[in-house]
Structure formats: C-alpha cells, structure tokens
Amino acid sequence: MTPRPHRRSRHAALLAVGTAVALVTGGCGVDDDNDNGRTDPEHGVTDRGAPVRSVDRYVALGDSFAAFGPVDAPTSGPPACLRSTSNYPALVAEALGGPVAGGGPESAGGPESAGGPVSGGGDPGSRSGEDMVFVDATCGGAQTTDLTRGQLAGIPPQFDALTADTDLVTLSIGGNDIGFGAIAECVMTTRADATADGSASTGAVDGSTSTGAVDPGPCRERLAQTVTDALDALPEQLDLVYASIREHSPDARVVTTGYLPLVPADGGCAFVASMNPGDVTWTRDVTRQINEVVAEAAARAGADLAMPGQAEQHSGCAAPADRYTDFTGSETGSHPMHPTALGQAAMAEAVAAAV
C-alpha cells in the first residue's frame, strides 16, 4: 500500500522527533534477520529509516501511559478512559499506514475513518484505514484484571478487542497493579520535611522546621510494603496476560512498552526538591523495579520491549520542550504524572522500530 501524502508527512515528522530513541530489549529484541532491517542499537531505528512490516489488524491494550495524550486532544471510546486520539497507539497506527488520529496539526476534526465512525459507548475506538484496522482499547486506570473483565460500567474487557486475525498488539500494563496512583498522590501532597505520619518535623520551642530530623521517605514508609507485595505478585499476573493474548490472537506480534520515568536518574529540579529525599530515591527504585518486571515478563512471553532511549534525560525535570513526562502538566499541556505529547511520540517511534 502506498500511504497518502499527508500520512507520509506525519510519519516523517514522527521519525524526526529530536530525540535519540533506542529499543530496549529484555532478551526479546528484534531478530537480526528481520525484513525491516537490523535495529541500530544506539538509535533504535531500522537501517531503512522506517518500518515496512505489513499489519492488517492492530489492537492497543493498556493503561493511562498508553491511553492519555495532550489534554486538549480529542478522545475516543468511553469518556472515563480519556483515550486520546494522539496517544502512542494512534501514532503507531498512523506510521504503519492506518487511520490518521484527529486533533493533530493536519486534522482538527475527529478521527479519519474509511470504515465508519469511531465506535462510542462502551466499545473500543475502532478505526479502519486503507488496509489496516486499528482498535484502541486502552483505558486510564486499567489493571491486569481489566483486560479480562469490565473495568467500569460501559467499559468492556480489553481482551474483547482481540481476534484471531489480530497481527499486532501493543501492551502497557502493571503500573496500576502496584499502585502508581497512590504513589503519585503521596509524593504530590507530601512536603519535603514531612515525617512518616505526614506532619512536619519541628523544633520543640518555636515550631520552626528542623533541618536535622527529617523522616527518610514518608511515602516509602506508608506504601513500600504494599508496593513490594504487588511487585512480587505481578510476574504471575503478567504471565497470565500474555497467555491469554496468545489464546485470543495466536499469530500476533506483541510489543510491550515500559514506563517513562518522572524523576531523573540523579539531580533534580524545583518539584523534586519539594519531595522528601528518601521518597525521591524510592520513586526511582520503584520505576526501575516495575520496568524490570515488565521486561522480564515480555522476555518470557517472547514479546518485544519498546522504550525510548535515555528517557531519564527527558524526565519531568527537563526543559518543558524536552520532557517525555511531566509532574503537573501545566507547562506541556499533558496530564499530571503522565507522558507528554513528546513522550508519546518518542514511545511511538520506539514501538515502530520494533515492528
């Protein structure tokens, strides 16, 4: 299929994102004899510059790190999902020759569809391009269990979107299983000088804040055991997810995406300075741990793992124009504690390189 001119221009813009994007593999990388060309280990793109693998039916599964896009972009599907038409699945679909997502620079209206309008109500957003069907079943707040059961009233199990002829599946899942929401809420509302019970560490006489008796990580103290238990249970849950994907769509290529970090690998910024130092360290550790669990599960299942290279350099502390994630979203037009438009584009590029 020859893409229409406006699709080529959008794809070129996607590939020209000013970031070095790498494909991170947990023992499940792109095969050396892949017809798309070998993957450049430094830049994570094929030596032909763009994916050429034909995809007939692409289903996107997952949580808010896949579902959300810019706050002002149109959404599809159930309103509670906040499923953006400019998230990384939509960008991947477009790069592969599927329908153009609405809300971008070349389309101010709703999603383009050669096969009918975006389905509403409780159905996943399904759009048909010239040769490819794209079904976005992602939903904010999704956990592994929401792939097999209805997440909320009117939101069907995400696996309902899988069919025997699905040949590409992307997956972002696990963060809500370990309590990303509770972690984000805690670090957003806990002062740097707070103790484990949430109060400030104060002097005995004048009530001024003490500089020598700060509790090392109040959020960690409150949540660490719950998070650790959830991380321990997650591998088995993910194995069941992959087994079910194979059952529904036995011939599908599965590309799993990791979680873009909010906190830089070292150093910080004003927002990080407002966090308790112990919680900063713990937040970094939790992000590392869940990405390891996700990568190992993908490797066991024979799935590919996609992640933008050097993502920690594009954390919430980077300049607004360089952020892949944002703490508040106020400077990037993104949802708080989630990927920015640039982050979604970088993730789409990493996924396209794996396909």
The secondary structure category is: alpha/beta
CATH topology: Rossmann fold
Order of helices and strands: HEHEEHEEEHHEHHEEEH
The top-level CATH class is: Alpha Beta
Which architecture name does CATH use? 3-Layer(aba) Sandwich
Contiguous runs where pLDDT drops below 50 for at least 5 residues = 1-52, 101-123, 198-214
What would the principal axes of the Cα set say about the shape?
globular
How would you describe the overall organization of this protein?
The longest helix is centred in the middle third of the chain and has 31 residues, at 218-248. This protein has 355 residues and is α/β, with parallel strands linked by helices. The protein has a single domain (5-354), classed as 3-Layer(aba) Sandwich (Rossmann fold). A hairpin with a 6-residue loop joins strand 2 (75-76) and strand 3. The protein contains 8 helices and 10 strands. Mean pLDDT is 77; it is low at 1-52, 101-123 and 198-214. 30% of the residues lie in helices and 10% in strands. Helix 3 (88-95) crosses helix 8 and helix 5 (218-248) packs parallel to helix 7 (277-301). The strands form 3 sheets. A 6-stranded mixed sheet has the order 4-5-1-6-7-8, sandwiched between helices. A two-stranded antiparallel sheet has the order 2-3.
